[in-house]
Amino acid sequence: MKKKRGNDSSANDFIWVLGLRAPPPKKMMPVNVVLAEKKPEETHRDFLTIDQGQDIREEVLTYFQNSTNNSENSYGHRRMGSILSATGSVLHPNSNEGSYKINYLLGRFIIFEDGQVQQHESWTISCFGSSSLVITDEVNGRLIAAEPVQVIVGTFPINSST
């Protein structure tokens, strides 16, 4: 009988992310950020609609800045804000002409106890145009909605191991 190799994760190796039980991320989190013990009530997700012509980056940043004032998001420690999903179209991503459908959009922020919000890493977008051109790149500058864009964002607590 062959033994299976792989992760022998116990139930204690799982965390709560936005109300769902999940294994802890390993590749995407930097070494100096450790996820805190999570309970479903400490996570929060929301749906944003970014109107045509608005800067998606600015609207998401404003949401996270304002979320620190909501009692439901205030747990007395740092939080990670993350874009979980986005649908819609953007104009001229990274100086490419035309309108492009969003395949995925990634971006994370650290929300500090005092209400300051800091971008945690560069935003990444993957989108495709009518000519089948696929763009996957870091977002540089503004990201303008070509139509109403739906963005799902979430926040969850983190601990800094500094």
Automatic annotation (TrEMBL):
GO cellular component: nucleus
InterPro entries: AHL
Localization annotation: Nucleus
Signal is among the record's keywords: no
Keywords: DNA-binding, Nucleus, Transcription, Transcription regulation
GO terms assigned for molecular function: minor groove of adenine-thymine-rich DNA binding
Lineage top rank: taxon: Eukaryota
Domain statement: The PPC domain mediates interactions between AHL proteins.
Function: Transcription factor that specifically binds AT-rich DNA sequences related to the nuclear matrix attachment regions (MARs).
Protein name as it appears in the record: AT-hook motif nuclear-localized protein
